[in-house]
Amino acid sequence: MSEGLQYRVRTLEILGMDDAARNLLADRLPPGHILDMSLLKSLRDEDIEVRRNTHEHTVDITVDVRKRDCVHKNN
């Protein structure tokens, strides 16, 4: 994403986190707030999917840490 454009969070889906971690992340990235990718820095890139709507300048974010377990089990 371009540093110059501001995108607002439209949706946030969090999968595979305990309730405390999920609530903390959801509180920091509520719908309507400007996306701050630094809030996701503790996560690996492959755990995060960001879908942009360039017309509306919004993003739908999915954080899925369950993928970590699948990678380790298959190796």
Summarize the structure.
The protein is α+β, with helices and mostly antiparallel strands.
Overall structural domain count: 1
Please tally the β strands and state the result. Answer: 3
Structural class: alpha+beta
Neighbour order of strands in the largest sheet: 1-3-2
In round numbers, the mean pLDDT is: 88
H/E element sequence:
EHEEH
Tell me the strand percentage band: 25-35%
The description of the largest β-sheet is:
3 strands, mixed
Distance between the termini: 32 Å
Number of helices: 2
Helix percentage range: 25-40%
Q: Give the overall silhouette.
A: globular
Stretches where pLDDT falls below 50 for ≥5 residues? Answer: none
Measured on Cα atoms, how large is the radius of gyration? 13 Å
Describe the structure.
This protein is an alpha+beta fold and 75 residues long. The chain has one domain (8-74). It contains 2 helices and 3 strands; from the N terminus they run E-H-E-E-H. It has helices spanning 19-28, 66-74; strands at residues 8-15, 48-53, 58-64. The protein has a 3-stranded mixed β-sheet with strand order 1-3-2. The protein is globular.
Protein traits:
28% strand, alpha+beta
Write the layout of secondary structure elements.
Layout lengths: L7 E8 L3 H10 L19 E6 L4 E7 L1 H9 L1
Parallel strand pairs: 1-3
Antiparallel strand pairs: 2-3
